[in-house]
UniProtKB/TrEMBL annotation:
This is Ribosomal protein L17. It comes from Candolleomyces aberdarensis. GO terms for cellular component: mitochondrial large ribosomal subunit. GO terms for molecular function: structural constituent of ribosome. SUPFAM superfamilies: Prokaryotic ribosomal protein L17.
Length: 227
């Protein structure tokens, strides 16, 4: 009704909407946003069950909105896949120098790959999400998604370097400072740890106690027991 634009359609839409601001949003925002989209204006994202009464939860959202959850998730997945492909083919130093600068070209090529066809840089599910998101967004949507994906890829590269730099500075001041330990499920780009090691997280890294300390503890325990 909002996309038709005539007075009769606006009147019928006003009968469904309870607030005047909703009608203005329909005419001024949503009708323009979905002018080229024939349908499929909403998306349901399942959030699992709620604690307490175990009721199922979900988020109902309008697609292509400024805070689109699928858009953000897909952009991060694209950045991860492109960076992972670069690290496998190039040295890490080369990937750090150039980043994910060719993201737009990769996305344009992935749009042309048919569903189920092999090849490409992205994983099949990520490619499918990219094709659905960019179906009605045109060149502007392609530029926005590529920019978000490149930003996330640069962040993935910069985070380990920043942590290492902070650790080296602290280690220079305090010799007993230990390297930062990963949390459970954390994985860096190009890492080949098994799923079991990743799930352990910090528990998988045991602090090495010097043999001199162990000897002192053993001696102290023996003396205490003798007394």
């Amino acid at each position: 009704m909002g996309k038709k634009g005539d007075a009769g359609s606006h009147t019928r839409a006003a009968n469904f909407l309870l607030k005047p601001v909703a009608l203005s949003n329909l005419v001024e925002t949503f009708s323009k946003r979905y002018a080229e989209r024939p349908g499929g204006y909403t998306r349901v994202l399942k959030l699992g069950n709620r604690k307490g009464d175990n009721a199922p939860q979900a988020v109902l959202e309008l697609v292509d909105n400024p805070h689109d959850l699928r858009w953000e998730m897909t952009a991060r997945a694209v950045g991860w896949d492109i960076l992972q492909d670069k690290v496998q083919k190039q040295r890490v130093s080369t990937a750090m120098k150039h980043g994910a600068g060719e993201t737009k070209q990769v996305l344009a090529a992935e749009k042309r790959i048919e569903f189920g066809e092999r090849g490409g840089v992205l994983r099949p599910q990520t490619r499918w999400n990219v094709q659905k998101l960019l179906r009605y967004r045109g060149e502007e949507g392609l530029n926005e998604l590529s920019e978000k994906a490149s930003t996330h890829a640069d962040k993935l590269l910069a985070t380990p370097l920043a942590l290492k730099s902070m650790f080296d500075k602290k280690k220079h001041i305090e010799q007993h400072n230990l390297a930062p330990r990963p949390i459970a499920g954390q994985k860096h780009v190009g890492e080949t740890r098994s799923v079991l090691d990743m799930s352990k997280g910090r528990l998988g890294y045991q602090r090495q106690v010097p043999s001199k300390v162990l000897t002192m503890k053993k001696t102290f325990n023996l003396k205490s027991h003798h007394v």
